[in-house]
Amino acid sequence: MNILILEDDAVDAELVKRELCRAGLDFTARWAQDKAGFVAALETTTPDLVLADYSLPGYDGLTALRLARQRWVDVPVIIVSGAIGEELAIDTLKAGATDYVLKHRLSRLGPVVHRALAEARERAEKRRAEEALREANATLESKVAQRTAELAHRDRQLQKLTLEVSEAEDRERRRLAEILHDDLQQVLAAIKFHLSLLNRRAKQDPAQQAIVTQVDQMLMDAIQKSRNLSHELSPAVLHQGDLGESLTWLADQVRAKHGLRVAVYAFGPVSTQSEALKTFLYKAAQELLFNVVKHARTEEARIRVRRLRRYLCLSVSDRGGGFDPRELRETAGFGLLSIRERIELLGGRMKIRSTKGKGSTFRIVVPDGEKPVNKRQRMEDRKPARCCPPLTSVAPDKKSPP
């Protein structure tokens, strides 16, 4: 090891070297007699240990200690002095000295140096471990930030892709509805017209007239079914009104077709940035009402819809037979599971509350649009929000349910 000795007395410097040899140390010593030599040695060598006299011409050990600490922070510095008071010794230790040894007790120098070097090695190992830990933490934080950004990007991609799939489905429904309305219904109407001409000629033959009448009824049924299917595939109100108006129209259709009375409660106009999202929520409500018709054994249901900040909230509830939500995965139909998966892909969630004999409530919350980049808006979105809380404003012709 390299040892730097600051000592103005050559005899004392040799005594220090002898004690170091007696301590069994393998070292190379550099001797500095004054401040200039000491500074030059600090600049040109890398000492493993500094042994500094306290009483020096023109400056003292504290100055030497500060010089050593400015250049090499972790190198142990031991003050070797002929006479030093207790208060002065304490001051040197407070200033950063590792230890001190009196010259008339140089026999203690070996153990003190061994202890100082051991402590220096421990500090060095601890520092290396801390640096390695800091580097590992920085690397981990960087990877976490990178993965978080990647997940956020994929989340946005999934949300966008899900909306695009919904838009494609909506376009296909509208195309099929237009085919039913513009093509098939027109063809059926033309057939019915020609059948009416044939019916005039068949008045003289009761058998033929009966057949014509039967075919005419079949055509009427086909036209009606085609019209109903066209409305179910792509209701006109879905592309004209807001979500509340669309759900009100759906409630009327469900009542007319299945006899289920559905009350719709909307908190103000519920508009959306995406037609595909509005269509999806409409289809989700339609599927949930169909489940009420099939399983709830009740004649009434309720729909609540509102906007809460950048989220759309929809709930469908009834007071029917209820079920155990834990059995939903095993008993639910494909439609309900598909709705839940689509909601999760959109960045939303669906909660189910049901008790046997007391009814069920399905609550859906989905974001309307992409995640905000505004910091204040992100903080607002982190606040806990109740899905579809009790309404303070409802349709004027209906009362809010309990």
Detailed description of the structure:
Helices cover 56% and strands 17% of the residues. The chain has 402 residues and is α/β, with parallel strands linked by helices. The chain has 2 domains: 2-124, 3-Layer(aba) Sandwich (Rossmann fold), CATH 3.40.50; 238-402, Histidine kinase-like ATPase, C-terminal domain (Heat Shock Protein 90, 2-Layer Sandwich), CATH 3.30.565. The strands form 3 sheets. Strands 2-1-3-6-7 form a 5-stranded parallel beta sheet, with helices on both faces. It has a 5-stranded mixed beta sheet with strand order 8-9-10-12-11, with helices on one face. Strands 4-5 form a two-stranded antiparallel ribbon. β9 and β10 form a beta hairpin. α2 (35-44) runs parallel beside α3 and α5 crosses α8. It is rod-shaped and about 150 Å long.
| Sheet having the most strands | 5 strands, parallel
**How much β-strand is present in the residues?**
15-25%
**Helicity, as a percent range:** 55-70%
Class of the largest domain, according to the CATH hierarchy?
Alpha Beta
First-residue to last-residue Cα separation: 86 Å
Give the gist of this structure.
By secondary structure, the chain is α/β, with parallel strands linked by helices.
Set out the fold topology.
Layout (H helix, E strand, L loop, with lengths): L1 E5 L3 H13 L5 E5 L2 H10 L4 E5 L1 E2 L2 E2 H11 L5 E5 L4 H10 L3 E4 L6 H93 L4 H28 L9 H16 L2 E6 L8 H22 L3 E9 L2 E8 L9 H4 L2 H12 L3 E7 L3 E9 L7 H8 L20
Parallel strand pairs: 1-2, 1-3, 3-6, 6-7, 8-9
Antiparallel strand pairs: 4-5, 9-10, 10-12, 11-12
Helix pairs in contact: 2-3, 5-6, 5-8, 7-8
